[in-house]
Amino acid sequence: MSQLREEKSEKMRYSALHSCLWVMFLLLFHALNVDGNSKGAIQGAKWKPLCTLTADANKVYNRALKLQILITDYTKAATKLAVEAVAAAQKMQNAEAHAAAIGLVAEIREQLKSKQPEIARCYKVAVETPAFIGYTHGRIAEFLEIMGHNRGASNYGYLAQLSSPTSPATDAATAQLSSCKIKPHDITEGPEETEVLTKKGFVGMDHGTGLVDGVLTSSCNEHCVLTSATATALNSDTGPQEDIPFTNGYILKHQTNTARSSQLINSLSKQAKGLPNKGQNQQYVRLWDKYVQLEGCETSFKAGFSKPEAQTLKQSVAVLTALKNIIDNESGEYDLSKDGEQIKTVAEKLFKHGEDNYPEKLYKEAQAKTLRKTLMAGNTATSLTNLETPIDLQIAQMYYTQRKIDGFIAKLKEAEEQLSKDKLGDYGAAAAEHACNKLDGEQKCNTDKKCSYETASDGTNKCTYNASKAKANNVPVAPTQTESAKKTTKKCKGKKKDDCKSPDCKWEGETCKDFSFLVNTKSTLMAATFLSFFKIFHPLFPC
Description:
Elements: H1 2-38, H2 44-92, H3 95-149, H4 173-176, E1 197-198, E2 201-202, H5 231-234, E3 244-246, E4 251-253, H6 282-302, H7 310-315, H8 317-327, H9 336-339, H10 342-350, H11 360-367, H12 390-422, H13 428-437, H14 442-447, E5 451-455, E6 461-465, H15 467-472, H16 483-492, E7 505-508, E8 511-514, H17 516-537
Antiparallel strand pairs: 1-2, 3-4, 5-6, 7-8
């Protein structure tokens, strides 16, 4: 009986030992299996979009620079067109061109003013977008470099070959990462299209749960400690207690590779409340938002500044206000109910479709290669549109302004010369007669272009004024003084030297003589000259 009990006890001990060994085997097998699955290399299909995104980053740097240049060119073209118009009007020297230039400049100013908020926003976008993608670029590049270079002697590594995405085998880091653009290139303006970062989202980045076993290759890779799901393989104190945000959060590492809530970023769109919330991938969402704004700004400024057309100009309140303020010399914004139709009519007459009308005539004049003399060296003829900077155009404007001044001075000089021709001794027919009477002898008298030696009715010879001879010899003589001038003559006659004062009287020789008609004649000619000048440049608003 005792022997039977011992045999039974031995069987039980054997069975328990067998069960224990079996359990240990199962646990060891499970541990080995978990260890094997959790230490595989990251599949090529999962890390390739990150590699391509580094190349996209370099393209975005170039496009951001291009956007800044587009914005600068836009404002530069608008400013240049305005100065071109003014210079062309100075060159043409007529009232219509002057008024058209005023209207055109006013419209350009208004368009630039309305564009300023967008210019400021897009300049900001051109700076922010490279900053956002630069940060993500650096995070991804660091991860890929570490993973690409951290390989074991058996060619095991963290990044599976792109050609064999399920194999744990890796290439040398140089070949492995050759398609990536880990380091930023020299920035040059360019319009390159991105592949992963698009307006729709991050193409191919369709894994949103972080680093899980399904992202890894199935083959065992004992070297891939950083991707291990075994806590002690990562940290001797049972592993990290916080998720590790590899690649700016896209490959989020939990100590046991437990899946996190899915936060897909391969398809994105703005919501009514703003940007979608993508948890650990929110930095990617913010980057995407900046990129979408970048594309919008590119579209807005790509075409450059457009020349205002006639239809736009004649309907513009800014144009009508400028014509009112500058041409009509009235203050305030144009208001049809208060200012009437006159300004509006002027704008409609000025701005019409076709190259023979404004503003096309200004544009055409600016393109004419007739400009030679500026501050720049050389005599090659050029056009206003070929001048590179607003400063060059201002120099041309000064050139044409000076030509206008020269023309005005020439008119004044002509008037003065006319007055000099009219000045004959005491001036006027009476003065001419007096001057001829003073000449002695027939020869001296007849030599004078306005005098003739004649025999009087009493038989005496006398040198007298010959109006026909003076006219034939182109010697103009002012007409005989008017009654008012005669009265002035009487007023001057008999005055002593100290009392003989201008402007009506002047002491000459031994008598006080009348000079009021000279002043009147000169004033008349000067007034005529100014009126002529005014009519040249301001016929739009007749007095």
